[in-house]
Fold this sequence. Notes:
Distance between the termini of chain B: 127 Å
Number of helices of chain B: 3
Oligomer: heterodimer
Low-confidence stretches of chain B: 9-20
Order of helices and strands of chain B: HHEEH
Mean pLDDT of chain A: 90
Shape of chain B: rod-shaped
Amino acid sequence: xxxxxxxxxxxxxxxxxxxxxxxxxxxxxxxxxxxxxxxxxxxxxxxxxxxxxxxxxxxxxxxxxxxxxxxxxxxxxxxxxxxxxxxxxxx
Amino acid sequence: xxxxxxxxxxxxxxxxxxxxxxxxxxxxxxxxxxxxxxxxxxxxxxxxxxxxxxxxxxxxxxxxxxxxxxxxxxxxxxxxxxxxxxxxxxxxxxxxxxxxxxxxxxxxxxxxxxxxxxxxxxxxxxxxxx
Lengths: 91, 130
């Protein structure tokens, strides 16, 4: 039986060595696909993080602007509500 | 009822007149020495206008800050849009590569299957011959 296996191996090892790199190539390509998928996921994660940062900066700027406008309007309304005295030109 | 409404309207219009009661055409008189004499109402009206102008100028200054901040918010929004556009382009490139590799891998797998079957049949044939 051993002789049979040895004979079989010696005659067919060429096929084995031909198959092996093809299998390795298949695995390598699958690995590359996995790497591409994981790098894509990382890309989306990084973009989401950056986007959230930009969104918070945008919200802060908008909120600041709205606050300044509200303050300016309130201050203007308060100033206008005060009656002008006769001595306005002396102040 | 009509009299009541008419009275109310007259009262409202008279109160408005009382608030803006400087007639600039008659309330300001030019003196012989070139100076001007204002009535009290016109003096108050000018003070009110000056005050309003100052308030408006201050408000404009603040509004400029508001516009700058709104501009900044728009810049950030544009940056976000660009970021997602670039990200989607990159992802599309990756998807194309993955799609291409997957289809080629399927052919490779098919070839490997055929080859393996062939090799197995050949090996079996040799084994049976012995």
